[in-house]
Amino acid sequence: MCLFFGLVWAGVIELRVGTFVPFQRFRPEAGSFVGALLLGMLFGLIASPCATPILAVILSAAAAKGRPLFGAALLFAYAVGHGLPLLVLGLFAGAAARLRQLGPHMGRVRQGSGWLLVAVAFYLALTA
Predict the structure, then answer these.
(1) Cα Rg for the chain, rounded, in angstroms?
(2) pLDDT at residue 76 above 90?
């Protein structure tokens, strides 16, 4: 996968992806409560298969200890670790507007990232 997507980003392989817009008629206003709720529900649905195995391990460790306060502390630490990157992203969303200044150089940045990903693929293949 690293090799394939590295070659796509480097521009060696062209990958055409269609668009899928499931809610074409219903478009909530930007910044609305309904829009934030729908986006949060979608994120929860998408993140659930990734987060559930970790959550199961945390709950198993808490149950094995038999101490509810220890389990609560583990779940709190998990919640902070799971939500903190999103909070930081939200706080610095305004800084993303400055990324448009990199516009003329983004082709080279993408191509360089692609070749870096190809190098990672070869490293992983050699050390496997």
Answers:
(1) 21
(2) yes
3-state DSSP of the chain: CHHHHHHHHHCCCCCCCCCCCCCCCCCCCCCCHHHHHHHHHHHHHHHHHHHHHHHHHHHHHHHHHCCHHHHHHHHHHHHHHHHHHHHHHHHCHHHHHHHHHHHHHHHHHHHHHHHHHHHHHHHHHHHC
User: CA-to-CA distance for 121 and 110, rounded, in angstroms?
Assistant: 16
Q: How far is CA 60 from CA 24, 69, 75, 79, 114, in A?
A: 42, 14, 11, 16, 40
pLDDT at 25 over 60: no
List CB contacts of 123: < 8 A, sequence separation 6 or more: none
Q: What is the pLDDT of residue 22?
A: 59
Closest by Cα among 113, 117, 14, 15 to 125: 117
